[in-house]
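Narrative progress, year one. The postdoctoral researcher (J.K.) led the effort to move from monomer predictions toward full complexes, under supervision of the PI. The following entry was the first complex the group processed end to end, covering 557 residues in total.
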Amino acid sequence: MSDHQPSQKELPEAPSTAPTPAGISRRGFLKGAGITAAGTALLEGVQGFSREAVASTPKGVKEFGPEPFPVTLHINGKEHALQIEPRTTLADALRIQLNMTGTKVSCDRGVCSSCTVLLDRMPVNSCMTLAIDAVGHHVTTIEGISTDEQMHPLQAAFVRHDAMQCGFCTPGMVMSCVSLLEKNPHPTEADVRYAVSGNLCRCGTYPKVFAATLDAASQLARKA
Amino acid sequence: MNSFTLADCSTVEAALSQLKDGAIVKAGGVDLLDRMKNGTDTPTRLVNIRNISTLRGIHSTPQGLTIGALTTLAEVADDPTIRTQYTLLADACGHAATPHIRNMATLGGNLLQQLQCWYYRSAEFQCLRKGKELCFAFSGLNQYHAIMDYGGCPSVAPSSGAVALLALDASVELTSAAKGKRIVTIRDFYLQPDANPHRFHVMAADELLTAIHIPKPAPGTRSAYQKYGEKESHDWAIADAGILLEMDSNLCRRAVVAMGAASPVVRRSHEAEAALTGKPITHETARAAGQASMTGAMPLSMNAYKVQLFPVAIYRTILLAAGQMDRDPSAAG
Ligand SMILES: Cc1cc2nc3c(=O)[nH]c(=O)nc-3n(C[C@H](O)[C@H](O)[C@H](O)COP(=O)(O)OP(=O)(O)OC[C@H]3O[C@@H](n4cnc5c(N)ncnc54)[C@H](O)[C@@H]3O)c2cc1C
Ligand code: SF4
Ligand code: FES
Ligand code: FES
């Protein structure tokens, strides 16, 4: 390894609190903070990337790779130390390095959303996200929404409604719908359609996905 | 993907200092990673601008609106001011790609995405736009290609955002370490393929696209964008229409009809605009504008359908802008 490579502790720390508006996911935050210079300053404060603290040459530039370097990824509430290269996608870091194969990759080009994970609670395609861009953010995968004993209510609804056939698109579908229910606990069918409009299912399970998601929403509403 | 070094930059100045020796900028990375996975681009160094927080956000100014280049398509589409006053931009960004891509893709990257021609996207084909002589599309598979103004390269303008920004008379702000900032209108930003087969726009290698400036629309402006695709979602437009109408009560004082998927560079149809100017917006005038938009169309062997699709897209989108028709359920989302 060359000497300009950062050690693990030089890398940004993830925010210790619950999901904060970091990185590219500023939408909700902007609304709250007002779209002003002050809003931006506040954002930089909470972003979790304390770049100023990191020694870098020249100023404001941190260089990574091409050799592997250590990072910490915050996935499903746990810290995972691993070695990545700059070209490692988040999907590959999850599946190949961390053996978290619940996240599926089919097109590897951003077209099908089977690789959907939540980055700071916002659905993104992990195949088109570099793992290094996930450092300092909270990643939630399909493994993170349930426990060994209990499925997420949405997963249970998928089972009840038989909302999968080959199942390859299912983890991505579920993550898109989990994210929808977090933002909108009372969705209409049109809302569900919109939420999964990037999720390609070759088996044509869409009607059951809609039914399962609406059912899960009403179950969750009853519990709340 | 080939292996590379990544220079992660936290300020514009830092990023500008890195724009040398063939380094390529990465914003959201959606277009760039596709090209790298395809093997058409093999940079040894990326300049990551994604974390430059000063390049994000939407600011109202007395003149109009300034949007930071790193603002995501989802942020643009959800912004209340853009939805109400710059409606066709919210429509265009809100219907590009998929919801998840819109969370990742930046407006600057959307404007700078490269051609989607499948020959261009494949490392197996070396065509005119990659420094060779030949275009494979004229005699090959050209169902998604251009029907007008194509010269030697009928790949279509891929950016939905650019169609809306052309109609809004927007400009991009380009910044370099050597020359500081300059402003270029969207109209002058993109280059026609014949004069410049190897260049797509006027931005130089040492420049960053830092912001998009949009003048405030005139009073009485109504606008809409619709995109038609082969699928309901997931895909670029096969026909699209960006419509802006400046109304004086029921007469159209000024009309803009912009298209992307018809030609290699986003274009306005002055023929269609003339069919609306000074007239009331009705089904008849909207239809006439749609028909007029195809003046000069020269479809290729497999895309004559576009000559029928564009007039429908334009007709329906004019009426949507005018508030006389709902969003077309058969338009792509
Ligand atoms: C399935 C799918 C469907 C799609 N459908 C549509 C559609 O319907 N309409 C549409 O418009 N788009 C569509 N897209 C394209 C998508 O919108 C673009 O890929 C995306 O907007 C690119 O933005 P980015 O920030 O990820 O760009 P990047 O990939 O980061 O960058 C794109 C290019 O621009 C350069 N660049 C980026 N930002 C800057 C800057 N600020 N200064 C200088 N250079 C810069 C980069 O070097 C790179 O060459 C689709 C994409 C996919 C995967
Ligand atoms: S249409 Fe343009 S990009 Fe496609 S093969 Fe022909 S010259 Fe190349
Ligand atoms: S595998 Fe990532 S979008 Fe298809
Ligand atoms: S269940 Fe087979 S792809 Fe969706």
